[in-house]
Amino acid sequence: MHVKGFPLHTDSKSMAFVRSFMRCYLAGAGFNTRGMQNIGLMYAMQPGLTAIHSDPKDLRAALKRYARHYQSHPFWTPCLVGILLNVEQAIATDHFPPKMLTKIKDTTAYSLSAIGDSVFAGSLLIFWAMLSICLLLSGNPHLAFAIGLFFLAALQAFRIYTFTCGVRQGFKFLKQLKQWNLINWGRRVKYANAALLLWLWTLIWPRPYQWWELLLGVSALLLFGRFVRTGLLSRVLAVAVFVGLIDLFTWINESGWTGFGL
Asked: Dihedral sign, CA of 128, 129, 134, 137?
């Protein structure tokens, strides 16, 4: 098969879908300010589209459908590619109008992107990072490494599962995703992150410390959290100031006692 004079390697449909899945890992390599991840999406879709559309004209039209703007969380890319390959099969058999695909694709990508930012970037990744830091500081490097491997393997299993379900079920798979209630699970993980933050705090706080020092630190943490939530202070600046105060607390405490002659 040729597209604009360039020969394309023809795989079986199953092997082509496997190649599309593997290319999902490179979806962010072609990031650009105009189409965001559109080049990576087109690159991931190409093997599957080649196997689905035998007519070069239909293949060119299918590729153009993915040249538009596309942006979503990278952990969801295999799921979206699987769903879109399912839809392309329906388009090839005249069971789905191609004009509807763009709007549905954008809505699905943005919805999953919001969930990904909240659950993955805003919850699970922070949970893994903070847990690893706490384990390393408490002298458990092997356990931290094992947990990191577990999360890495779980992520690959998640990508494979969602891609497979997307290919088999198409947009129907979104109903199953809704039943997972990921947003509320993300909220629960954030509660665990708060506990890990307290654990991290006890590990890095200068020793010995008194109970009122912890109370003062918790109050300061709540205050900084309030400022960040209302937009009065950026997260990066709040963390930098808070960590700086922890490092300087011993000096401030000693200077205070000395200054008042206590």
From this structure: positive
